[in-house]
Structure formats: C-alpha cells, structure tokens
C-alpha cells in the first residue's frame, strides 16, 4: 500500500541519522541498509514524522509547498520500503 498524505508514519527506532552537508545518512541497524537522504528538507520531514498525526500534517509543519508534495510522497514511500520509516 503506497504512503498517502493521510498515512501516519515515523522514523524507525532502528535507524540512526547522521547529518551531512547534502542532507543525512540513514543507517538501519536491523537490515544494515545505508540510505542517502539527499536534501535537508527530506531530513526535516523524516525527523518530524513522529511528531504529527499524518504525513500531510508533517509536510505542512515543515513548510513543504503543495507542488513538491508528490515528490516527497514518492521519496517517503521509498523510505518505507527500505524500512527507514514505518507506517504506524
């Protein structure tokens, strides 16, 4: 099931984020995957997911413009497949 604006999601507790000039590295200790988060806005959204009831509310809180939401949903959906974020 693809992630939607109404989905509830959070950063997996098994993931560590390491800040980098381009964004961050996300390492999953369970499946040992290393994922590059290539934009600071993506890092902000991923860090904030657990603080808001839905993905849409998180994007609002992070100031993500409406025209960018489709690309963020694709990126976040990919991160769920990598188990970096989890759908609650």
Task: Fill in the keyword field for this structure.
globular, alpha+beta, about 25% strand, two-stranded antiparallel sheet, 3-stranded antiparallel beta sheet, about 90 residues
**Main pleated sheet:** 3 strands, antiparallel
Indicate the proportion of strand residues: 25-35%
- SSE string, helix = H, strand = E? EEEEHHHE
Q: State the distance separating the first and last CA atoms.
A: 13 Å
Helical amount among residues, as a percent range?
25-40%
Given the C-alpha coordinates, what overall shape results? globular
Structural write-up:
The structure is a single chain. The protein is α+β, with helices and mostly antiparallel strands and 88 residues long. It has one domain. The chain has 3 helices and 5 strands; from the N terminus they run E-E-E-E-H-H-H-E. The protein has helices at residues 40-48, 55-61, 69-81; strands spanning 9-11, 15-20, 23-28, 34-37, 85-87. A 3-stranded antiparallel sheet has the order 2-3-4, covered by helices on one side. Strand 3 and strand 4 (34-37) form a beta hairpin. The longest helix is centred in the C-terminal third of the chain and has 13 residues, at 69-81. The protein is globular. The mean pLDDT is 96.
């Amino acid at each position: 099931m693809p992630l939607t604006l109404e989905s509830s999601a959070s950063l997996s507790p098994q993931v560590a984020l390491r800040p980098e000039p381009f964004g961050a590295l996300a390492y999953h200790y369970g499946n040992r995957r290393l994922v590059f988060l290539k934009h600071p806005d993506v890092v902000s959204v991923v860090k904030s997911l657990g603080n808001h009831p839905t993905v849409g509310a998180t994007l609002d809180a992070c100031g993500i413009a409406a025209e960018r939401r489709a690309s963020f949903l694709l990126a976040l959906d990919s991160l769920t497949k990598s188990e970096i974020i989890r759908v609650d």
